[in-house]
């Protein structure tokens, strides 16, 4: 498949797509770069925030599919470190939209037993937003079946630097020696510690890059790029991404028997 293929409107019913899925080989963890909200709004002559609002409906569709198929982990790139460079007015609107979303969805988190896990430099969030994010995270932290990880004020390089600084401090204090540091220990200092690395990364809007999102965690992740703008990435688009994932052969650096024969 061309990684940048534009998924044309399909005359395939959602039920037919679902019937084509192999339930036994679904990804356990999906990560999503939700790109294209602004372009979606611009194409319709709407303010950018309208695209972000429509994008929340797409997010709900993806979450619904994950819930129905028992996919336990979903990580979304909601607000990056670089997004702080956007106009102050847009940032205020985005933070307000985040508050609205959490206040609206927190009961659904309880109904579906979803753990809300914010990752990133949360201390950079506005105080009111930070308080709400922390409250919802603490209120749902006991759920173990499903996790929605939301990257807020997140940058993959910043996450790695933070982990290195924590390890360096432990070495400086004498509680750790450099030769004890391995991949497993390093991962314990990442914000995603305790959840598996993503099996599938979806990026919408035609961009074919990871934009500083989970660079450590996606070393062996399958990448799926589509030209579909995020607000248009709905249930059928999600199923198409899953079907494409199931065509992949995940070797993790190994050689398969077929290749070695």
What does the secondary structure layout of this molecule look like, with pairings?
Elements: H1 14-20, E1 29-33, H2 37-43, H3 48-68, E2 73-80, H4 88-112, E3 114-119, H5 127-140, E4 146-154, H6 156-173, H7 183-187, E5 200-203, E6 222-225, H8 235-245, H9 257-260
Helix pairs in contact: 1-8, 2-3, 3-4, 4-5
Structure description:
By secondary structure, the chain is an alpha/beta fold. The protein has one domain (26-156, 197-248): 3-Layer(aba) Sandwich (Undecaprenyl pyrophosphate synthetase), CATH 3.40.1180. Helices cover 43% and strands 14% of the residues. It has helices at 14-20, 37-43, 48-68, 88-112, 127-140, 156-173, 183-187, 235-245, 257-260, and strands at residues 29-33, 73-80, 114-119, 146-154, 200-203, 222-225. α1 runs parallel beside α8 (235-245) and α3 (48-68) packs parallel to α4 (88-112). Mean pLDDT is 93; it is low at 1-7.
């Amino acid at each position: 498949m061309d990684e940048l293929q534009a998924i044309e409107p399909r005359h395939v019913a959602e039920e037919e797509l679902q019937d084509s899925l192999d339930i036994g080989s679904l990804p356990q963890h999906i990560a999503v770069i939700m790109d294209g909200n602004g372009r979606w709004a611009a194409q319709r002559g709407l303010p950018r925030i309208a695209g972000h609002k429509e994008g929340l409906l797409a997010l709900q569709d993806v979450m619904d599919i994950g819930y129905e198929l028992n996919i336990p982990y979903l990580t979304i790139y909601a607000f990056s470190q670089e997004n702080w460079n956007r106009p102050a007015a847009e940032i205020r609107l985005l933070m307000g939209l985040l508050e609205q979303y959490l206040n609206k969805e927190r009961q659904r988190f309880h109904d579906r037993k979803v753990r809300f896990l914010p990752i990133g430099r949360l201390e950079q969030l506005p105080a009111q937003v930070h308080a709400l994010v922390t409250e919802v995270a603490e209120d749902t932290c006991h759920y173990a079946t499903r996790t929605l990880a939301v990257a807020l004020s997140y940058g993959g390089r910043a996450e790695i630097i933070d982990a290195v600084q924590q390890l360096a401090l432990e070495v400086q204090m004498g509680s750790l020696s450099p030769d004890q540091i391995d991949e497993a220990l390093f991962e314990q200092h990442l914000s995603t510690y305790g959840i598996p690395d993503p099996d599938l990364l979806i990026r919408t809007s035609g961009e074919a890059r990871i934009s500083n999102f989970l660079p450590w965690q996606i070393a062996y992740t399958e990448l799926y790029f589509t030209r579909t703008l995020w607000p248009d990435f709905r249930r059928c688009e999600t199923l198409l991404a899953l079907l494409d994932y199931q065509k992949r052969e995940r070797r993790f650096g190994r050689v398969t028997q077929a290749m070695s024969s």
